[in-house]
Specification:
about 180 residues, mainly alpha, 2 domains
Length: about 180
């Protein structure tokens, strides 16, 4: 295959990888939201899947597409290397400035690609059902503080007078607790 055709195929594959990554990102953000957002949207704890895969499975595909895009980008840069060097020399005529900028870009590239492997995450026990551990969304904290236990008790008493069964009151109370105190996933 001649070079222009190869460039076209590589560029087309890079574009398709990028569009697939964007589509999967939108899928994970809007159609398969994480736990707390799913709870807010559906009003209960649900397992969201599409084609039998949950958001973590689609996240793996997203990662593999990112690896493919990086590989194609490296091939693209190799195929265009002489053109890149010529344009770079024309853009920055001073060789010392070109050398410094090239080293800066190289160091920044290495840092951006390697930082996930150099950090140590904070590890905290999450417990079951929230229990006040971990990060909580500020709006949910405000709702929890505003609603208070007195309001919930008052609503349960009103429900008893309206003939609502104790079992549904427990279920409703648990849903309110889980909504106000669930962990961010």
């Amino acid at each position: 295959m001649d070079k222009p055709k190869l460039n076209f195929v590589i560029d087309a594959l890079m574009f398709l990888c990028l569009m697939a990554m964007a589509g999967l990102g939108f899928l994970m953000k809007y159609s398969l939201p994480p736990g707390r957002q799913a709870w807010a949207k559906y009003g209960r704890n649900v397992e969201l899947t599409w084609l039998g895969w949950n958001r973590h499975d689609w996240g793996d595909i997203h990662l593999y597409l990112a690896f493919a895009l990086l590989g194609l980008l490296v091939v693209h840069l190799i195929l265009h290397w002489q053109m890149i060097l010529g344009l770079y020399a024309r853009l920055l005529p001073d060789p010392e400035t070109r050398r410094r900028l090239a080293w800066g870009v190289l160091v920044l590239t290495v840092l951006l690609l390697s930082f996930p492997f150099l950090i140590t995450p904070d590890v905290r026990e999450r417990g079951r059902g929230g229990q006040g551990r971990g990060r909580q969304h500020s709006a949910l904290k405000a709702m929890s503080a505003a609603s208070g236990s007195q309001v919930q008790l008052g609503n349960q008493n009103k429900s008893r007078r309206a003939g609502v069964s104790p079992a549904s009151q427990i279920s409703t109370g648990w849903q309110a607790f889980a909504y106000n105190h669930c962990e961010r996933t």
